[in-house]
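Exercise 7. Predict the structure of T9SS type A sorting domain-containing protein from Adhaeribacter swui.
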Amino acid sequence: MSCLAPLRALSQESCLLSPVDLNERAKEATLIVEAEVIHQESYWNATHQNIYTRQTLQIFKILKGSAPETITVITEGGRVGAAMHVFTGTLQLKNKDQGIFFLVPAQSKMLPAGRSAVDFMVYSSSQGFIRYNSTNQQAVEPFKTYSNITTELYPVLRRVTPNFKNLRPNPAVKIINPATGTGINKAQGNQRTKATPAISSFTPDTLTAGTGSLLTIRGSGFGSSRGTGSVQFRNADNGGASFIDITNADYIFWTDNEIQVRIPGKNSSNNTPGSGDIQVTNDSGLSVVSTQALVIEYAVSQVLYDETLYSPRLVNANEQGGYTFQFSSNFDQNNPAKQAFTRALNTWSCHTGINWNIGNSSPLTAVAEDNVNLVCFDETGELPRGILARCISRYAGCGSEIADQWRVAEMDVIFSQTTRWNYSINSPQSTQVDFETVTLHEMGHGHQLNHVIKPGTVMHYAITRGQEGRRLNARTDVAGGQFTMTQNVISNQCGPGRMIPQPVANCTSSTDELLFTAEITSNTEVQTTWSISSGNLVNYFVLERSKDAVTWQELNTVSPSPTTDSYQYPDVTPLPGISYYRLKVINPDQTFSYSPIVRIMREVPSGFAIAPNPVTENTLWLQYITQDSGQMQIYLYDVVGRLHRTYNRAYQPNNDLIDLDITDLRPGTYILVYDDGRQIHREKFTRL
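Solution. The predicted structure, encoded as tokens:
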């Protein structure tokens, strides 16, 4: 068996956390307890601005202060009905979680209406909870792993708070036998007669999380059924320092020699599976860790509702195709911060087509569910101690069942005001945190991406002071963003309409050496041109085109020329209406990068166009150009007049794309007839 060492050092900022020393936590906490979560309930605060979750803790030990046997602790975020708030970099708990809690009195703004009881909150949020793993007897906090609860963690805690008061035994913590150094467990003798699990292989060795990817594990001794067994993955949120569970719904099947699981984008504690070895524990409590390492390229956010995970969508929240962010007055007065934030926003938009823009400043100074996507510095104590920045995603569910569809209704972004930031385009000093790098990471969470364990990528779980990371990685950041966009551009069943891809016009190259452009040169041609520095080694170029900035088609492959650094390629069969172009640059080592996306708009006189035509895949796209919104009836006939399909679709202003499923439609010529209530139009297409 092998063990993956944590990939971080204490100088790194884990999920944009600045380390809070154990001595400080012990000094500032008014109550320190070893406890277990036995009940949870989410609620709106008294002003109905934010959702919080109230946990009832059953106490095993009191390390500082005094308390009854059960207390109430409040954490940020949670779900009430069809509303859900998720705060990045913030502690989230679930029932049966246990460990050491560093507590202070809860702020009044966190309390529900009419609440008068004394509640607590966790000092420094996720750093104020040392989580126990009862399986391996380890304890984990964001910047440290304790190999054993009783032999390593307890002695460390006694140095800062020596007076432990036992209220009741904790059955999850094993007593260490001084003679052998092992845990005393009455079932230990019986377990020796059980088969020890072994992992021989797993496939595939590279996949993505939150996308439906399946992992098959082969070996022996897993047990004929799962029972209390589990498959655990390295925690991407702490660089793999601990293992995390997956939800029950993600187990597909379990036999003695084969297990199949789905890789979720998160678990019930809001942690994300990351790259590294995997651990299998059978129903007898015996575990094995793989010698093979799993690679997770990117992870997509998911919403957990009634033990099932759903993929939320980004939508047309501002009726201009996406989301508008507004700077608070304190942020608006900081021009370097505004410029750095705008550069980061544009980087995502240029490479994934996400529709984000910046509007007028706002008089608001505190974040809340108020239909304002606020960007602000923390002036009102919103950020817990040690958090540099965070993005809050506020979700809303809709449909015949709440879980039919979840969307991002609003986003807020908060930055620490006391951090020594570098706002400039120059590299940060060794003691500075790069503001653009942090913004790019937090807006990745806004793009609905979770952490990965992959240094050099924007969504890597940690950054270092003095580090600059302003380029999106093609395999991880861009690919993950493009995956979320495939969901965002599909017509919605309810709520605001789908997102309309809109890469910004003022894009900069993904590398300093590459310049890529596209322009309409005639009614039947789009000319693409690019140039690259002569010192940049390239294996070949791939020119790509898309109808929606999500699904890309290869137009041509071009080999580098020894005599020129400039290239051209004409697209003589351009798509009608809106289309998108980008250049993929393949390096000799097979790594690659993308140019920013270029958007082209060709006139569609009828206001209605089919793309592609002929169609070879299972989705036909209609581009309907209008300044109105409404419902459209669409009928699909063959050339002899037989009706094959009927669709009802909502349409939006500003060149809406409408997707039609034509799975199992036989090859041939067909006619689409649409009726938007004002006119009827017919268009012919060919199915190959």
